[in-house]
Amino acid sequence: MTHKEILAAAGLNEAALTGGTLAVYSPIDGAEVASLHETDPAEMPAIIARAQIAFRQWRNVPAPRRGELVRLFGEELRAAKAELGAVVTLDAGKITSEGLGEVQEMIDICDFAVGLSRQLYGLTIASERPGHRMAETWHPMGPVGIISAFNFPVAVWSWNVALALVCGNPIIWKPSEKSPLTAMAAHRCLERALVKFGDAPDGLSQLVIGGAEIGAALVDSRDVPIVSATGSTRMGSLVGPKVMARFGRPILELGGNNAMIVAPSADLDMAVRAIVFSAVGTAGQRCTSLRRLIVHESIREGLVEKLKAAYSTLPVGDPRASGTLVGPLVDNGARARMLEQLDRARADGGIVHGGESVSDAVPQGGAYVTPALVEMPSQTECVREETFAPILYVMSYETLEDAIEMQNDVPQGLSSCIFTLNLREAETFLSAAGSDCGIANVNIGPSGAEIGGAFGGEKETGGGRESGSDAWKGYMRRQTCTVNYSAELPLAQGVRFDI
Amino acid sequence: MTHKEILAAAGLNEAALTGGTLAVYSPIDGAEVASLHETDPAEMPAIIARAQIAFRQWRNVPAPRRGELVRLFGEELRAAKAELGAVVTLDAGKITSEGLGEVQEMIDICDFAVGLSRQLYGLTIASERPGHRMAETWHPMGPVGIISAFNFPVAVWSWNVALALVCGNPIIWKPSEKSPLTAMAAHRCLERALVKFGDAPDGLSQLVIGGAEIGAALVDSRDVPIVSATGSTRMGSLVGPKVMARFGRPILELGGNNAMIVAPSADLDMAVRAIVFSAVGTAGQRCTSLRRLIVHESIREGLVEKLKAAYSTLPVGDPRASGTLVGPLVDNGARARMLEQLDRARADGGIVHGGESVSDAVPQGGAYVTPALVEMPSQTECVREETFAPILYVMSYETLEDAIEMQNDVPQGLSSCIFTLNLREAETFLSAAGSDCGIANVNIGPSGAEIGGAFGGEKETGGGRESGSDAWKGYMRRQTCTVNYSAELPLAQGVRFDI
Amino acid sequence: MTHKEILAAAGLNEAALTGGTLAVYSPIDGAEVASLHETDPAEMPAIIARAQIAFRQWRNVPAPRRGELVRLFGEELRAAKAELGAVVTLDAGKITSEGLGEVQEMIDICDFAVGLSRQLYGLTIASERPGHRMAETWHPMGPVGIISAFNFPVAVWSWNVALALVCGNPIIWKPSEKSPLTAMAAHRCLERALVKFGDAPDGLSQLVIGGAEIGAALVDSRDVPIVSATGSTRMGSLVGPKVMARFGRPILELGGNNAMIVAPSADLDMAVRAIVFSAVGTAGQRCTSLRRLIVHESIREGLVEKLKAAYSTLPVGDPRASGTLVGPLVDNGARARMLEQLDRARADGGIVHGGESVSDAVPQGGAYVTPALVEMPSQTECVREETFAPILYVMSYETLEDAIEMQNDVPQGLSSCIFTLNLREAETFLSAAGSDCGIANVNIGPSGAEIGGAFGGEKETGGGRESGSDAWKGYMRRQTCTVNYSAELPLAQGVRFDI
Amino acid sequence: MTHKEILAAAGLNEAALTGGTLAVYSPIDGAEVASLHETDPAEMPAIIARAQIAFRQWRNVPAPRRGELVRLFGEELRAAKAELGAVVTLDAGKITSEGLGEVQEMIDICDFAVGLSRQLYGLTIASERPGHRMAETWHPMGPVGIISAFNFPVAVWSWNVALALVCGNPIIWKPSEKSPLTAMAAHRCLERALVKFGDAPDGLSQLVIGGAEIGAALVDSRDVPIVSATGSTRMGSLVGPKVMARFGRPILELGGNNAMIVAPSADLDMAVRAIVFSAVGTAGQRCTSLRRLIVHESIREGLVEKLKAAYSTLPVGDPRASGTLVGPLVDNGARARMLEQLDRARADGGIVHGGESVSDAVPQGGAYVTPALVEMPSQTECVREETFAPILYVMSYETLEDAIEMQNDVPQGLSSCIFTLNLREAETFLSAAGSDCGIANVNIGPSGAEIGGAFGGEKETGGGRESGSDAWKGYMRRQTCTVNYSAELPLAQGVRFDI
């Protein structure tokens, strides 16, 4: 199928894709696949106002009824899974299985959120005063601005949208300028669900297309109480304080610099598979991609040999082709940054395997590379940075304590893992003295989280949580209520004040 | 007892109180009661480093054992309740009952936190993959910087300290320059508990005395991952973004502009008592003090008459004297700001009752005033600001919807209440379309929260939560863990990646 | 449509419905609509053994995957809603809207359980010992025997089945002999879902048709660790102890004797509608049907007049006809018991309005009655019994305390409600000193629970809980786990035991 | 100290201990230490009535205030720890450290329950209907009958009493006839706390002394809604059905037949210490005592040798003597049953080491034995029974699956453990396909639970849960509340019923 056919199959016709100012290129071949109409920044106040009006209606719709909208959305996603997955591939360059996996994740979070819609549990609490009832309830907050990144062009949005809608909040979505097509296709699914739902307010979900100015309107408006932003640490370091300064609530999912510790007892065959998937999957462009390998010195040599062997046979190429495991980087800039980073690594004493541009047997115009395996003498500065590309740095360790220290000694805090069959090592890694990341796995790579858990991490990862567990509380306001149904007026803490 | 005797009874002797650069005055009579040695800002890095070292030890101490320290602290507070309450009165000018109530609140939070120390519940979560175990656990975060305000010189600190210690975090406390003496006396109680406990690490709890520079060191340091700050909205608008910019976690408890709606069905006798206590208690210097009265037009006149009668007999004076209900403002600056604000209210058409300086039959040197009742034609700009003084603005309403609109139409979001015997009104007030405050009460004034609930609010109140419910999670980091104990390596969302 | 056509539309063809020993009659017209093959009691051990084998496989299927089966089941129910609802009407005599409502309830619980399938939350718990991890997890229990009653021939089963399947348990269902057709039709839906699911074990869900002997096999078998039984108190008083005696877990939903207190401030129009629906809906054959009306003496007369007026115009007749609100009783025996009970009420001084057999303009062969309103001088013994028919006893009260006392003074504890606009009355009714029922409503009748809450009650109601909240825990076993990953062996409570 | 002095130190003077009909013997030397006045069974109705009256007052006391009573009780226990521990030793024959540990457990549960008293969390739940509020709250139940066993004469009672009191329930305690003295001493502590508390109702806690008839009064009375019984499976099989038959709630803690699996990778030194403590501690008379050792065949021989060596040096004797690890059995009957059981084991092919009566160097009159280590060819019938004595059966296994099968193949389900350093084995043991016990430990013996977790198990263990987690819910009734504050009356599930 041509690019156009793929987009048409997902409901995006010529008219939607042409005549605008935002050129969109496919990572597959660098071809311009659309020139989109951008949202005029001057319209943003009206868009936000529309969301506020929708909010006043939507917050009063019972949550299980709001859940019905999310259920219908999930049904649309199920029906359009193949088509939408293909747009993910076209727009973000992911291989087919990962494109489908991303849509599956959207479906999963819808199922989860439908269940939530009959929960949204607050607490009833024992009061210290007779004739008093105390409770903590959760209420809708208002419009949620969602700023998403190119590498998960729709899944992370769906985490936000499924929770936000169930929680009673309208949404305004600014997708990455690099992958707006998937956003448009996914939003169409939601629009179809809205039609089936029937009586949702206008402006409940709005998609805005464009660049920094559009995003800034969401970040700066007091009428957007929540801003959920996924992207780089640099972006987060700007967005977070701005939202905070106007007393909004930022939900930040920023960089990761995710490591795996491989202990002597590890099942090495499993480890190799996990390493390769998590280091080169999505061409190393997941926020949870494996970037650092911390191997016990006793097994380092053997493991590196196995990895070199595995890396040497990885099928790099057109992500649409069956058999391809490594698709393109998002653009040439990303490739340039990768190569530059590898030079820095070499300068620090690193030995680089792979990490070269590929131009044979791949679609021309795309930024294809062989994944890089870099043996480092130590964790130098370039290792402590996140490079959004398939670079895997290998270091070695002597004691588990050292390995954990090295794992934690980066500014980011997203994901981490250990491969070991030793109970004490595994539990130590998960303990208060273990990994300092928001995600910590044992015998699993750092990427590929299930939606049932909360996703995010501390430090430069930004501290936000999305997806499962009680991440929904990030989309609501908490209210502590006390009702005095007695005819007395006792004060807490035994204070006396008799007028 | 003289000021000195009171301080000595609380363990603060001459040496601790003299020879320094920070002059401390009692609101009671404006007398200088101490000149304290200030912490040298240059020492802050070492202080923070000491806390970090303590952290590495304390995080490994089992939480129930950490709870034992908090239990011992509670016992010290019980033993010193009268003495510590007297220092609250001396240092913050509160009446005796309120001084004791503040200590009782400290005791309550200790009891609560001891129970928590055997909980700190995370979740086990159903995994979608066979042979996998998923869980969400909570781990200590590191040193907590606590910046507290003069008006609750010790209770808010105790909320933080009880939770932080149980959660595995060291603390560094910068109390207000206006009320450092209560801080010193309370910290002595904790030090005694530490001695009885036996083997806590050095630097687990540190008290730093001084001004903005000291606070800035906590706000700016990456080694203080949590900063819990109580104070003005202005302070919060500076602290929040700074902490956020370096990827720390701010817990902000800022301004309130708390209202009561009085409905036609209200029990007016109860309402009057609640209004007076919450508007003039602590001389209107609680963050939860009642500042706005929104009365149904049908009962406004009668209620205002009752309030004028009640206000006219309020005993203003020495807070140590039995019978006094209204003590001094914290200083002359606070009184000047109050009088100035009343002039603004008059200019907006307000009719002011009371609100005058008092100099007869009160200790000389203190900033005594009669509480002000101000009948306003509408909610003008001066009403929408928080003035930390006993000013109560009275407005009227026609429909409950209007009343709620007016109640929410201020930038702050801390506390709120309604007096009504009508079920529909009460529940509407507590619903998603009701009060937008973090605290919402029915037939109780806005102040005097129990420690079992979470304390805080959205909007300019800063969004933080302290004290009960799961506020403890604000002091820990969340970790989503998945353990693969199978010999397979399935990927989530059904992704295939076979190398 | 004829009875046969209705059954055929729901997938029950001639072969399934004929040639057996169990005659099934429709309450609509008393016609025999099927003679079903009964399960041979001698087969029960093999059936139970099959469930045990299925269990060993199903418990290892990840819960979210188990949830997928329940999602598919929900989809089948959505698709078959009209047809299945019609069988409810045919089999149990419910009016069309209630038949459809029962299916909707099945759909709702499926949505809820799908969400649960990624939760089934246990706890991680702070351990008092260093190097120890403590958790509470929930595991599947084994086969669940479900014994359901005629009046909710499928909804209550669906509560059990949705939870049991997600929790990892096989099910064996013995429906009432009076309404096995709906059971068969509903089980077909599940079977279709199983086919779409693909790889569920044989014997995961089994339907057994027959009488007491079949039920006894479930009650007595140690291989059926959970028996969930809905029905009469008499049945429960036999089943509960038997299950307990062999250390199984009974989940009992037994009788109710549900009251409404109508306070002076009640919105009487709403009250009348709620009373009529909950007293005569399903012809008074819900376990939550309203049976006792406790009215404040000041409004009794007026309310009784309104009710008499409303009762006099209630359309009694064919439940399939649009407009009908009161369908038939389940059989003539039920009618006879109703009339007999009315005689007892008269003997106790009751004045009976309505309560007569209807033979005009109704399908011949059905047990149609006009609902009975009985003014009682006091709560006599016959009032304290549950009669499964549309009898509403009216008593009066003076003080709320008395009303609550009267409401609680029956052996049953299922549902209860109050109509009042007075906050104090409403909260008192819901307080520790209020209703002793498992369900307590304000300004809603006692029937018609949402699936999000737990359903059940104490006293003769049996103590079980089904449906929402954490009722799923009743289908799992709880395990407290402690893992020592240190190299030390400390004992809890500081015990020393040095060998 | 003499027996009398020990009892006097714990507040039990001559008058309390003499002149009655119940002879109490110390296991230490078989001496009669008291002849107690027994409660007249005819008094039981009045005692229960008193509890019911206390209930109506206590349920309205705010839970945090009820918690204050439990806090005071904990303080009394701290003050009397040594004295009370000595009575445990005297009354139950435990060694000093275990006697003190039992009191410590009482203190721990008090701390925990005090924290709970500001929680007792119910849920607020999202309603499907507009203008409706849904919540699940927990209310007091009424008097709790506590029937406790001799082997934990006070700790298990304290679990019940701390939770029951905080939950708002009075208690009536029937301790074992074999250890009533500790009960009396512990109850004195509670009485002192009640005096300090001040205004608790009479009859809040009552102690009844006597035998089966007394117990039966609690079991049979509808006015004792909860019966918490600890003891033998035989007792539970009688009590459970009886309580159930009158619709009460039984909380049963019955037999255990607790196993340890020792895997090849186990830390054998740790395992040996854990085995010995848990098999011979409390002379094998804990419900969680280790009774079955399932050892991998590859390490069986070595482990048995180590155990034989350890067993051969165990100090058996006076439990008051420092150094003693194995005190007496409770009485001669217990010794006879142990010896008889060993004969059965021999008949089944078992090789018995130890297991002999001891009369040298021990107090005369006590039932002292050397612990028995029994090598069994397989898990025969006698192994599948619980014998309350220090008998440890040793079996071997080949695969972990077999070991788990063997571990689960007994009728009891209390506690279990595995010693392994292998992550996969540990996690498998804890999984849905692992141990079927309520307690499952890794690298810890089966005994010595922390109070933070729930205690109990399924199968013949009875299914009850006490102590930590949400065991408190077993002491309360759950109420699902829905409040309609709108002026509409929508029905759930979309049912229409328009009169």
Automatic annotation (TrEMBL), chains A, B, C, D:
Span of domain Aldehyde dehydrogenase: 20-480
Membrane-spanning residues: none
Family matches, as CDD domains: ALDH_F7_AASADH
Record PANTHER family: ALPHA-AMINOADIPIC SEMIALDEHYDE DEHYDROGENASE
EC number: 1.2.1.3
Keywords: NAD, Oxidoreductase
Subunit text: Homotetramer.
Keyword Oxidoreductase assigned: yes
Protein name as annotated: aldehyde dehydrogenase (NAD(+))
MF terms in GO: aldehyde dehydrogenase (NAD+) activity
Source organism phylogeny: Bacteria, Pseudomonadati, Pseudomonadota, Alphaproteobacteria, Rhodobacterales
Enzyme class: oxidoreductase
Active site: 253
Record bears the keyword NAD: yes
Family: Belongs to the aldehyde dehydrogenase family.
The species this protein was found in: Roseinatronobacter monicus
